[in-house]
Write a structure and sequence with these properties.
With 230 residues, the protein is α/β, with parallel strands linked by helices. The chain contains 8 helices and 6 strands. It has helices at residues 13-23, 28-38, 55-64, 80-92, 104-113, 115-118, 120-136, 177-186, and strands at 44-47, 69-73, 96-100, 141-143, 160-163, 166-169. Helix 3 (55-64) links the parallel strand 1 (44-47) and strand 2.
């Protein structure tokens, strides 16, 4: 059966305020359930980096809506363990994962140029931000697993935030690190293989070293975000 194409919606500020008031008192499970009452699954874009604790958000969605697609941005620079983790979670939770990548010639340029060493923002723009910009045009809502304790930028967000022409949805925003870890332990969720080696936030292999929370990302650089969520 072919998927029904839904027109992209851009909500007003008033509509977004109403959504925030409605979702704020709800539990994470309730928020995700309610999302599919307010939006059709074909309007919802879910992305995952299959990083340290990605199983947390993915299990929540897999338990509630098996039809939800999961987009993985394959930068070409992931650790082999990340690709293995993606396959493991895809099998375990029966995920419908689709990989998207930069244009071959643009990715090849960053490889030859070693752009991540000179201009990590530009490297992220080519290999992460730009590929996603193309598919964002097809969706009204973009789900993100960001949690406010992870960085200063994230602590200023609401559950729903307009970002350009797409509405961002942060169902985990007010989940504490303790609550997240308790859920992971209770449900025996698998961690990314590099976690046991001291990696707590995992991105591309060139720009990730062991470290607490996000301190291991873009080492020796003030950069703290790849640009996808700004």
């Amino acid at each position: 059966m072919d998927e029904i194409a839904y027109p992209k919606r851009v909500l007003t500020e008033e509509e977004i305020n109403i959504l925030n008031k409605k979702y704020q008192p709800l539990s994470v499970d309730q928020r995700i359930n309610e999302l599919y009452n307010d939006f059709d699954v074909n309007e919802v874009m879910l992305t995952s980096s299959f990083a340290a604790t990605s199983a947390f958000l993915l299990k929540l969605f897999a338990d509630i809506n098996k039809q939800q697609e999961v987009f993985f941005i394959d930068t070409g620079y992931h650790f082999p363990e990340t690709l293995d983790y993606k396959e493991e979670l895809s099998r375990k939770y029966n995920l419908n994962v689709k990989s998207i990548s930069a244009l071959k010639e643009e990715h090849a340029f960053t490889t030859k140029d070693e752009t991540w060493k000179k201009n990590p923002d530009f490297c992220c723009s080519i290999n992460k931000v730009k590929p996603l910009e193309i598919i964002k045009e097809n969706y009204s809502v973009w789900v993100s697993g960001l949690m406010e304790w992870q960085s200063d930028h994230r602590s200023t967000l609401n559950i729903f935030e307009q970002r350009g022409e797409i509405l961002k949805f942060y169902p985990l925003l007010d989940v504490s690190k303790e609550r997240r870890d308790s859920y992971i332990e209770k449900h025996q969720l698998p961690f990314h293989p590099l976690v046991e080696k001291g990696y707590h936030s995992i991105g591309c292999s060139h720009c990730t070293v062991p470290g607490e929370d996000r301190s291991g990302r873009w080492n020796n650089n003030p950069k703290t975000e790849c640009g996808l969520h700004l």
